[in-house]
């Protein structure tokens, strides 16, 4: 597994505070460590539109497939909250569907390992990305107008996490995604009609949320900072 040369639309700055640090996910550095924990917790992938991973190489192959897209960057989330201790791999997070033309992006592939769930990790990782993407260029940000968040309609924890950080629900896209045939959960519960070309695959309904620049300027910035400091 060799490191992948991250080729994102924007230069990646230092993304860290005194609790977490985000670094580009390098398969050779983070793949085995992440999979070693995640393989014992298949529930981490229950609502993601990807098949279960049988091996670390399967997981790395998926990462390698998504990384070359310039609209996507995947980060390893490192917990740095213990002074003097070696940073611990706490999960992943990424920016997806980034558009310099439309000044928009989406936070996704948010996987927090069990040991770090219900801690400072997720809120601080998301908060760092929100500061980078939504702050004006004069303040060191990208000046984007819109940051989206998508979640399986059954993934209430993901929706609550987004709403706690100021994202506003926009609606539900029905039959938004065809899940891999190997996925036996996370479907919308709808039947599959006769003759469907992917009759072995469940359909997913997706909740769409967003946090936009005007929300950020109207108080979301302060709310996010408060959540990060809890």
UniProtKB/TrEMBL annotation:
It comes from the Eukaryota. Residues 45-185 form the N-acetyltransferase domain. Transmembrane segments: none annotated. One of its GO terms (molecular function) is protein-N-terminal-alanine acetyltransferase activity. InterPro entries: Acyl_CoA_acyltransferase, GNAT_dom, Ribosomal_N-acetyltransferase. Pfam families: Acetyltransf_3 (PF13302). PANTHER family: FAMILY ACETYLTRANSFERASE, PUTATIVE-RELATED, RIBOSOMAL-PROTEIN-SERINE ACETYLTRANSFERASE. This is Acyl-CoA N-acyltransferase.
